[in-house]
Amino acid sequence: MASNYSTNLKIELIATGEQAGTWGGTTNTNLGTAIEEAVVGYGNPNFASDADLTLTLSNSNATQVARNLVLNVTSSGSLTATRNLVVPTIEKPYVVQNNTSGGQSIIVKTSGGSGITVPNGKSMFLYVDGTNVTEVTTHIPVSSGGTGASTASAARTNLGLVIGTDVPSPTGTGASGTWAINISGNAATATTATTATTATTATTATTATTASAANNITNSGGWSVTPSGTTLYFNYNGTNVAKLDSSGNLTVKANVTAYGTV
After folding, report:
1. Cα dist. 153→146, 150, 158, 159, 257 in Å?
2. Which of 90, 131, 171, 182 has its CA 20 to 30 A from that of 206?
C-alpha cells in the first residue's frame, strides 16, 4: 500500500511495511520540513499581479508556502484595491503580515468563506477552522494595551474616559464644552481670531498676546484691524479712522489726546 498524506499539513503517512530501508528519509522530511514549517516556518507568498492570490497544499511533505506558520505577504507591484489571499480550507493557524505595496488591505479567506481583513503594514494572528478564517484574539485587556471591549462606549468605560470630562461631548458636527486646545498654524476661514487668516469674530478671545497669525481681526462692536502692505488700518463701522505705517507714523481722522484717561 502506498503512502497517504495528512489532511491539514500534508505529512507523509507511510503505510505499514512500506519504504523498507528508506523510511528514515521520509520521516526526516516530515519532521525537518513539514512539521517545522507548520510550527515555526516563515513563508513569502507574493502577489505577482494586481489580482487575488490563491495558496494551495499538495500531497507532498516537501516545502510549501501555505504550510508555514507566518505568511509575509508581499507584491511585485502596487495593488490598486483590496485583494484576497485565499488559503487552503483546512485547520491551521496563520500569522499574516501584510507587506504589499500600494497601501491596500488584503482579505485572508478560504474559497468559500468571508475572511478577515488585514490592513496594510499590519500583522494579525488568524486561524482557519476548516470552513472560514477567524481572528485568534478578539479580547485584549487594558492591562495588555487593549481596551477589553468590542464597542466604543465599552472601551471608553474600561479606559475610564468620561464624555464631557475627559473627551469632548459631540453636538452635531462639533463638540460641546470648554477645552484648552493649543492650535498652531493658520486657517483659511475661521470663526475666532485665534490663529486665522480671516476671522469673523473675536468674542471667544479674552486676551490676545499676538496678532502674527491674523490678517483681519473684527469684533461685534464694529471695530476691525486690517494690514495692507506696510500699513495697519483701524476701521470703525466700515470707515478707516486711523492708520499706522511701518515707520511708526500714526495718522488719525480726528483729535489725538495725550496723557488722557482711558
Report:
1. 14, 9, 9, 10, 62
2. 171
The owner of cell 511708526 is 248
Query: Going by C-beta distance under 8 Å and a sequence separation of 6 or more, which residues neighbour residue 196?
Result: 186, 187, 189, 190, 213, 214, 215
Q: Concatenate the DSSP letters of all residues of 15-76 into one string.
A: PTT-STTTHHHHHHHIIIIIIHHHHH-EE--EE-SSS-EE----S-SS--GGG-SEEEEEES
pTM of the full predicted structure? 0.61
Q: One digit per residue, pLDDT tens: the chain, 262 residues?
A: 689 999 999 999 999 999 999 999 999 999 999 999 999 999 999 999 999 999 999 999 999 999 999 999 999 999 999 999 999 999 999 999 999 999 999 999 999 999 999 999 999 999 999 999 999 988 888 888 888 887 888 888 888 888 877 777 766 555 555 666 665 555 455 555 454 445 455 444 444 444 444 567 777 788 889 898 899 999 999 899 999 999 989 898 888 777 667 6
